[in-house]
Amino acid sequence: MSEESSTGDNEILNLSYGTKANNSEKLKGGNDIKLSPSIDYQHINSISPRNYNLNTTEKTFETILSEDEDQVQNDNQRFTPIDRPTKSKLSNGDYLDNLSMLPNSALNNDSKKAKDTDLINFGNERYVDEGNSSSSSSDTSVILGTQMNMSDAAKDYYNSYRADDVIQEPVLSTASQSSPPKYFSSEDESSDDDVALEKECVPYKSTYDAYYILELSSNIKEVDWIETTYNLKIQDEPQNKSAYDRALLTLGIGLKSLPLVYMVLGSSPKIKRYYSGLDYSLDDAMKTLHLNDDQKEMDAINNFLKYCYNNKEYDLSHVLVDGVYDNFVFYIICLISIGEHLNSELIRKYISTGYLDDRLLKNGNWPVGLFNMGNTCYLNSLLQYYFAIQPLKNYILSYKPLDLTNKDLEENELMDSMRCQDFVIQIQKLYKDMINTPYRISIPPNELIYLVFAPRGGLGLVDGKIPDQESLDVSIEVGRQQDVTECMLNYMDQLEKAVVLNRKVQGEHFESMSKLFNGSIIEGFRDILNEKIHGKQNIEEEFTSILISLHDKPKTLHEALEHFFNNDEEVMELKEFGQVKKQSHLKKLPDILQIQVQRVEFNKEILQPIKNNFQMEYPEILYVDRYVNGVVDDKVKDQYKKYQEELKKCEEKRLSLRKKCTGTTSGSQSLSLRASLSSTIKCLQFELQDNEMEFDKDQINQSLKLLSSMKDHIDMQVELINTRISYLNYKIANHYNEYQKYGYELFAAFMHRGEADYGHYWIYIKDGDMWRKYNDEDVEEVLNPKDSVFNFDIGNMDTAYYLGYVRKDKIKEIIKPLDRNV
């Protein structure tokens, strides 16, 4: 504040607010201060002249405007009307007007102005351009701090803008400790409390007034910026809070901003009482939003949007006549009351932010979605997959870590064991939240993300927390480079390690866990004549999933599994036995049979991995009897192979016939042999009818018969081979119909859309007769599985890359995706 005094006597200035009728009227007793001609003061009534005791050489208020009225004509955005300025008389009889709350731009201090042209636009953020402004502030973060949030940017702008302000406050002729008067109100104007209340609660005439009072550019629409400026204003000048409340209310209505109105209602109980009324109750709120006692929070939000909507531009006449945008403020008060009554975090956050937080939507009897933490959306599919498996879920929920301090373990093994226990505890936290949260979305802990993807042998959690943010970033980056199988292996490896640690304590749990995913395969060998090799023992290996290849484009899952278990084309070299063929059989069957579809292949031509989008059909019920050791007789298997071999020959013959039936005309058009024969026959028939041509009719007739016979022969060949192929396909598809003892039912299909190095993942999970699609936060019912889960059309780019089958007789016992306690 400047306290420089002039050497002369105090000069008494009379300030006149002129209307269109008296704009040029001068008052007696001093110099006239002209107001901006761009301001329409017609709506200001009963304004008395105000006297100022000034002891300064500087001009004040809008005297600067009188120096260049041409510029003022185009300046109504920066100098907009201030509604109802008044005077206030102190107890000592002197007058005080708190000029300190006037914007710096209204003072005759050119070096302190910050014009709209001085603002740089960084997306949604605005900063003062120190290069264009003459402000002396050296805070370069205002210009360069593009990473700051909106609140920090607003604070820096506000502080740098006001740091060196020389605000000219009036000097009182007699000192007084009385509080300054309320801005735009005076006890002298009216003794009617209702009128005084209305002056503090009714919005300003336009949003420009509010921007002017808050010293903001009218281009600023960001809620964070406006709220921060408001908070700084009332902190610096609490005596003018009512004016700033009105400004915030005006912008809230004018911008149709729930957060701004919510903020002013919380900050000013007087404004809230003014719009709600003295007799306001919860029943009023329920009636206003057309709600019944049994309706939920989303009903309240939907009805609020339905009944308070109004697309009119802001104007004070609309506010007063239409009841604040059809009672916009009152509807917000009603929604606040209902939210408090329902104890609804969803409604509170909706009003305070203006956005509906999906994570807070109450879910009822429906599975919970998972928030996507980054480019690792297959992790969410994996977490949902394991959550649906009831025995695994029960084990995780009841897991209790052991005290490893007394265990005789080496340091590396001890650290890894502790990490695995932390891993299970983090999954336990997530699964408990998925069961108990009333909302539709759960958020996986960062600690879980870190432990899933962080390389084994590295640092685990420190006191239950991630070592640092960099470790989390590295972990997520590793996750992006993994496929779902690697993630599964890491997941199950840590889980099994924790299980083994508790094996003595929870032996029964361990056995049931082992039976869920672990099976075994017996590998045997035959010579190249398909005879058994004596002296060579079979090898038994355990597995948790079966990897099948799409390189040869198998039409069905059974065809791919046949290639996996009995690949006659793959010949191995053994020192003792020479060239042999490997044959595999299932020995121990798991409760859950997991099949991985190898879709990523390395292209040697472009030296890059590519994705195979070939659509392989997989059944809803999969019988594996033919692959189980000793179940199907060898003769039945041999007959199946004969069908396959004949089918292969028939398809090759059909392909060869198609090639032979393709000829070339004198032009570039390619025609089939059958089409050429048909064309020749028509030509000869025309010659027979043409009397002018001298050809032997008998020869022409013989040629016609020969050509027709050739054409019919081609048709018959094509028909016969197609019929045989259809027959063989039928025999192959139904050859093992008698062997349906070991049946598995599909309960999960991991899906991918995209290429080898990018794309999106989701999962389908079956619950009884219903299929659901789990797509990160969204969980929805699949109305027609044939169009999604079992869509094998060639043009469909949604491809399965991991299939989960469960024993048909145990699906109800093992698979329970819906597990809620709300």
TrEMBL record:
Pfam families: RPT, UCH. Signal peptide: none annotated. Residues 1-32, 170-191 are annotated as: Disordered. Residues 171-180 have a biased composition (Polar residues). Its EC number is 3.4.19.12. The keyword Zinc-finger does not apply. Keywords: Coiled coil, Hydrolase, Protease, Thiol protease, Ubl conjugation pathway. It is an enzyme of class 3 (hydrolase). It catalyses: Thiol-dependent hydrolysis of ester, thioester, amide, peptide and isopeptide bonds formed by the C-terminal Gly of ubiquitin (a 76-residue protein attached to proteins as an intracellular targeting signal). It comes from the Eukaryota. GO terms for molecular function: cysteine-type deubiquitinase activity; proteasome binding. Residues 368-808 form the USP domain. The keyword Coiled coil applies. Residues 633-660 form a coiled coil. InterPro entries: Papain-like_cys_pep_sf, Peptidase_C19_UCH, UBP14-like, UCH_repeat_domain, USP, USP_CS. SUPFAM superfamilies: Cysteine proteinases (SSF54001). GO terms for biological process: proteasome-mediated ubiquitin-dependent protein catabolic process; protein deubiquitination; regulation of proteasomal protein catabolic process. PANTHER family: UBIQUITIN CARBOXYL-TERMINAL HYDROLASE, UBIQUITIN CARBOXYL-TERMINAL HYDROLASE 2-RELATED. This is ubiquitinyl hydrolase 1. It comes from Hanseniaspora guilliermondii.
